[in-house]
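Person: Show me a sequence?

Helper:
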Amino acid sequence: MKQQTLAIHAGYEKDEQRTMTVPIYMSTAFDFGSAEFAASSFNLEQGTDNVYTRVGNPTSAVFEKRMAAMEGGAAGLALASGMSAIFYSILNVAEAGDNIVCATQLYGGTVTLFTHTLKRLGIEARMFNVHDHEEMKALIDEKTKCIFFESITNPSIDVPDFEAIINEANAHGIITIVDNTVATPVLCQPLLLGADVVVHSASKYTTGQGLAIGGIVVERVNLVEKIAGNNRYNHFNEPEVSYHGLVFSDSVVSGILFTFRMRMVLMRDTGAVISPFNSWLFIQGLETLPLRMKQHSESALAIAKHLEAHPKVKRVNYPGLESNHNYVMGQNYFNGGHSGLLSFEVEDREAAQKIVDATEIFSIVANIGDSKSIITHPASTTHQQLSEQELIDAGVPGGLIRLSVGLEDTQDLIADLEKALG
């Protein structure tokens, strides 16, 4: 089935009430029916069958299956936020003494997580320029547990060479994790390009209206083939003491190995659980996602072209522009557009902040992916925790302005920016 059909139907079989809308199962627990079934459930003999909402819920299961289908993956795990999805994806592969290799051009919160919080846990983050593959290769060693990058970087708006990064990772037996929040599976499917895991902040384009906080992790089909017997990932291949010696890579659910271990170990123990109501909101958002991404992309491209011709704009970052250095990669890996996120650079920080303050339709908000258009000065907000050098490395100079182009009339948005630029 095509994306627009999957977005509406995947993962849901009507229950005995034959409801057209997915029901919200606002329940913490489920009746096992018998002591024997309860015991087998806690021993993981029932796979992902309903046990307790901390490790799974029927409404969330529909969201997980639908997003997995749209990404072309095997299974998903919904979580309380996009940051918890990223955090769990790292903790699922790395421990104290290990390192991860990750792109410098990342969302500011991800950079902070990797370079500060993970550091305190004994996990080293080694950063590389997303366009410098020799730099990336030099960072890999026997303790490297994943390579992490974004399909469209936020806010520098770069598109990586998926093939080069994934091929290098595969040569070393290393898992690749891609944040696909900005592109969404409508425009880019990293798993079908060879990546192993994707993560999303569902708070962005998935809901589309800034209604809820949530995240999701999706693993590719047959990921077990990369993990089983791989010395980098011994915790998947050795007996798990907390489950009486169960070996995850040899269990009945090895076909959804990555997310299953994340669910039954990390989410069980640390509880970054999504609300069933939020999962339901994300399900509603997915139904219109293909239509929205088309409009976001069309409007963003029109605005990018207009800004590119403006005398006060030094540079526009958008892969849909033929003049942009990411254009070829965007054509290689994206289908039907390049999302609604773009950035442009003006003279300096002071000029950028004046422009931000002068807009009327655009709202000054830290979120992206909303139906309402958003304008942000990343150096003083989403990336303010970075040093001046880190800002430069991340592609976030003081004069950079990020736009999340919404669903308003495109000409109204252009007029608003034109007035603000003066």
About this structure: The chain has a mean pLDDT of 94. Residues 289-421 form a domain with the Aspartate Aminotransferase, domain 1 fold (CATH 3.90.1150.10).
